[in-house]
Structures are given as structure tokens and as C-alpha cells.
Design goal:
Length: 125
């Protein structure tokens, strides 16, 4: 059940990334447009989740989080080009940095919250 929530969180963050990009470039925030922009990266996330040895839906930052981030960026950009969109250097840089902040930041936050809830996280006297 936890992996489903983590996958959903990553998917929502990818959609937020697409919405921010569309708004920044004044492309509009219609649902189909945002989903169309996010689609290559969502497909990359689903492909990674289904075929990787490491669970990309994990809260772990290393190696799962880093592999998820870099895999989503690489596969997502490749799919974007295959679908006929551009992948200009500026877009590659912004995509890499923004998805890194979102996907790795999510793991930092959820990992921190999980440690706070854990009974082992309390200070030992």
C-alpha cells in the first residue's frame, strides 16, 4: 500500500512540474494540456516502477530516489523527443533541476516524517 501512495506522490509532483512549466510559458493550465506535457515523464515513472530492480516508489533517497529522478528525466526527455517535442538544453537543465528538487525533496520530507513517527527515533536515555 505504501508503494502506491509513493507512486501517486511522485506522479502528482510530475504533474505540478508540468503545470508550473505551462504557466511560466503561458500555455494555459487546461487539464489535457498539463497531462500532455507531463505524459512523457509519467510514462517514464511508470516504466521505471514496473521494471527496475530498486523500488522507485521507496522513500529512500539513495539509491532509489536518485535513480528515480535521473531515470524519469532521461526516459521522459527521450519520450518527449520521440513524441515530437523539443528538448532544448535550457529545458533539459530546468527539467533536471526542478524534478530533482521535487522528487528528491519528497523523499527527504517523507523519510523525515517516517523517522519522526518511528518509536526507534525517540532519544535514548
Amino acid at each position: 500500500m505504501r508503494w502506491t501512495l509513493n507512486l501517486l506522490l511522485d506522479a502528482v509532483l510530475i504533474i505540478i512540474f508540468a503545470a508550473i512549466g505551462r504557466r511560466t510559458h503561458e500555455h494555459g493550465l487546461d487539464v489535457l494540456g498539463v497531462l500532455g506535457t507531463a505524459a512523457p515523464f509519467l510514462l517514464a515513472l511508470l516504466a521505471l516502477a514496473s521494471m527496475t530492480r530498486y523500488p522507485v516508489t521507496s522513500d529512500r533517497l539513495w539509491p532509489q530516489g536518485v535513480m528515480t529522478w535521473l531515470g524519469v528525466v532521461a526516459f521522459g526527455l527521450a519520450l518527449r523527443v520521440i513524441f515530437g517535442d523539443t528538448a532544448a538544453l535550457a529545458f533539459v537543465i530546468v527539467t533536471t533541476v526542478t524534478l530533482g528538487i521535487l522528487l528528491l525533496g519528497r523523499r527527504l520530507v517523507t523519510g523525515f516524517l517516517a523517522r519522526r513517527k518511528s518509536p526507534d527515533a525517540s532519544p535514548k536515555l
